[in-house]
Write a structure and sequence with these properties.
The complex is a heterodimer.
Chain A (H helix, E strand, L loop, with lengths): L1 E5 L11 H4 L13 H20 L4 E4 L13 H14 L5 E4 L10 H14 L6 E4 L3 H7 L4 H20 L4 E4 L4 E5 L12 E5 L3 H10 L2 E5 L4 H19 L8 E10 L2 H17 L7 H4 L7 H9 L15 H7 L2 E5 H15 L3 E5 L7 H19 L36 H5 L1
Parallel strand pairs in A: 1-2, 1-11, 2-3, 4-7, 7-8, 8-9, 9-10, 9-11
Antiparallel strand pairs in A: 5-6
Chain B lengths: L9 E7 L4 E8 L3 E6 L9 H7 L2 E6 L18 H14 L6 E5 L1 H12 L6 E5 L22 H5 L6 H7 L5 H19 L21 E6 L8 H9 L4 E5 L6 H4 L1 H12 L1
Parallel strand pairs in B: 3-4, 3-5, 5-6, 6-7, 7-8
Antiparallel strand pairs in B: 1-2, 2-4
Helix pairs in contact in B: 2-3
Amino acid sequence: MKITLFEQAAYRYFADDFEQHHESVCTVPYSLVDRARVYDSMRDFLDELMAGARAGFDGLTVTEHGQSSYDLMPNPDVVAGALAYATEQENLPTAIYPMGRSLGKSREPVRVAEEYAMLDVISGGRLVAGFPVGLGYDAGINNGVPPLEIRPRFDENLELVLRAWHDRDPFAWNGRFHQYPIVNIWPRPQQDQPPVWITGIGNPNTMRMTLKRGFGFNYFGFAGAKLTGKRIFDRFWDQADQVGVPRNPYRLGFLQTVAVADTDAEAERIYGKHIEYTFRKGLGAIPQERLAVPGGIDIRGVRALLTDPADFGFYYQMRTGTFAQLAEAGVVVAGSAATVREQLIEYCRQYGIGNLHVMLGFGSLPKELALRNIELFADEVAPHLRDLWQGTEFEHHWWPERLGGAGPAALPGGQNGHVTTKEAVLS
Amino acid sequence: MTTEAVPAVSTRTVSVWDGRLTVNVRVAGTGAPLVFLHSPIGLVWDQLLSRFADHYTVYAPEFPGTSVDDPYMGHVIDTVPDLVLAYQEVIEALGVRTPVLVGHSFGGMLAAELAAAFPSLPAKVVLLAPLGLWSDAAPVTNLAAAAADQVPGLLFHDPTCAAAQMLLTPPDDPAAAVAGAVAMVWALGCTGKFIWPLPDRGLRGRLHRIIAPTLVVWGRQDAIAPVSYADEFTSAIGGARAAVIDDCGHLPQMECFDQAEQSISDFLG
């Protein structure tokens, strides 16, 4: 089991009634912040991630969100660059894992290939390369991409990035959205190919694509895994069966917010208000029309969501969610180390999860509490999870070889996993 | 708003763009041809179309992707120039010559683009609250990005009016309500390719090419495209005139049918 420390760089000092007056994205006024506290929020976020690396987490995971107050992260590669160098300097064997650059949003896909190659070089081959399609508001509003083009842009940009990494010779790219006369990036990645992970929200076509192409699939449990987990993960493994690939847990990642204390009661006491801050002022304050922009979700997905909105879990109540409700829905797993590990082991066993991304710093949580959460998790929870899939026939093909990864997976049909272009898979 | 008998509406399907694009066209009435291009929410057969059918053969193409039988036609055409050529092919495939060209909102932008690209194509042009221009002083609201509860007030000056109720009240049957919502969302997505994030693909530079007599109809309280654009259209199109309707929003032919219809019939003669 690989366990990464995940954080978002939230502004930590909003007033209690923030979410009653503002959305957390797009129009949220910058006049609400104190610039010194922006610095503090960013510095503490970085310090906490570095503490995670020192505490033995297998990776450091961050996301991309432009024009957002809950994640000050227009480009996660900037932060990943800082982490890559600092961890290299301290000789910390942790994966640098942006989850990552949104390819449905990016109008500069070669830049994305270059940044990831840079990260892989700086980290000496520790990059795990995440590619989300991109949230509707981020691609559509923040970057002005017509929503109907978000998915086709993702598809084109992914091919271009992969080819820019592995083609030996310069090539011309004549795409629907981008044209480049010569693609010949310097540097190329250190790894033959950094492991590729795609983040999805439940679209079976995205799941299928990752399985066919030999990529990992990440699911973020922000909407409450007790409500959505079974639906999403059953769907994923059904797709794996249909595609004809083994149910290898290492190809699946799950992100969960976790709060560990000495007792369950203490967890509620010290983390409760910060958990409420996180979700009321973060995801809960992203209006529905920012997430579901017309054309950004395929018509079959729109029909599925309008007929049965359960894939969105607790999202609809999040803006006023209480700690008790958030815990009940599984948005957060909080309690003593015993409580937390019991719940996480159950999720991982039941759903076949081989990569757990734990959000241990969140919202307004002060640095000293985040560090305590990180330490308690590392000392009292992680050791009980790490060997979960030990002794099974499965190997981890979606992890850097320098960090113990087993090299690329075989694709359906037994092809060599290094060959990852769409044409090669389909031919 | 009076209710009128809806004429018999048939569907013709034409194949254009070298066979890659199939377009469903709703057809009604008899007489000289009139082509109607609908708004971003999809084709709604309203009172104005029924009235047109009293005097014209009305051809109302469903925008690619908005026909229930083939939503993925929305992925075929990527640019405004190609879209204009494809629509010219649709009109030709229908066997229609020099029609009256009427367009509403996004359809008004498309009608203006067609009339600018093919100046001798239309006999006359009627633009109902057309999109297509952008001024920083009068930002156009992106309907597709709006919150659901804002939509009635964006479309209508008086969201409680009968026309608003008729257009926006979901059917009682839950399955039909979902189907209607899905259709509207997808129509906004398909048309959004050409008007998202801002409805400006350079039309201003082409409007001078329109030579057909042109009427621009605008609701004074249009909350999507401010009425100030009426002047911009009429000053850029030689000989165009505007009819501005008081107490009226972005759907003048629905919210203020009598005034809109009067202006249009005076213009068309």
